[in-house]
Specification:
alpha/beta, UDP N-Acetylglucosamine Acyltransferase, domain 1, 5-stranded parallel sheet, globular
Length: 172
């Protein structure tokens, strides 16, 4: 747990310099606060340490204050960076690899109660407002652009930048 938090905190460093300034920036970041709560309760979840009802109240408080909802049963690798405040929702079965970056307004969801949750591999950047829906896999080093609704797999080193648009002529 602490090694993962240290790697999460290192993502706030502009260079390879780890300093007090980096620690303060991390501690004041809503994304890091949400990740810290997730890491603690995920550790308890994996070790079968009962934390209810405390976990429920703390997760709701974090969700209200940061706008980020990360259930304790998600699987998230080290070095996660959440940029900016709010609107980030994780499905409980979501898997996120190491050193991923997530911007505001991102949703990891299922297909309305069925269809599984996304798996995101390592070094993936997910842009503002992106929605990853269903049992899909986003491979290493991918970039998901802003406002993309992704419901298919992505191969390594690819970028999703626009939603497919279909136009139909309307007859009067």
């Amino acid at each position: 747990m602490f090694d993962n938090l240290k790697e999460d905190l290192k993502r706030f460093s502009v260079e390879d310099c780890f300093s007090i300034r980096v620690c303060i920036a991390g501690i004041l970041s809503p994304g890091f606060q949400a990740i810290t709560v997730y890491r603690f309760f995920n550790w308890c979840h994996r070790w079968h340490i009962p934390t209810q009802p405390l976990r429920y109240f703390v997760e709701r408080l974090i969700e209200i204050t940061t706008g980020i909802s990360i259930p304790a049963c998600c699987k998230i690798g080290k070095g996660l960076r959440i940029h900016h405040f709010g609107g980030i929702i994780f499905h409980p079965d979501t898997v996120v690899g190491d050193y991923c970056t997530i911007y505001q307004g991102v949703t990891f969801g299922d297909r309305g109660g069925y269809g599984g949750a996304p798996t995101v591999c390592n070094n993936v950047l997910i842009g503002t407002g992106a929605k990853l829906i269903g049992d899909i896999r986003v491979e290493d080093n991918c970039k998901v652009g802003a406002n993309v609704v992704l419901n298919t797999n992505m191969e390594k080193n690819t970028m999703a930048i626009v939603n497919p648009c279909y136009f139909k002529t309307i007859d009067d």
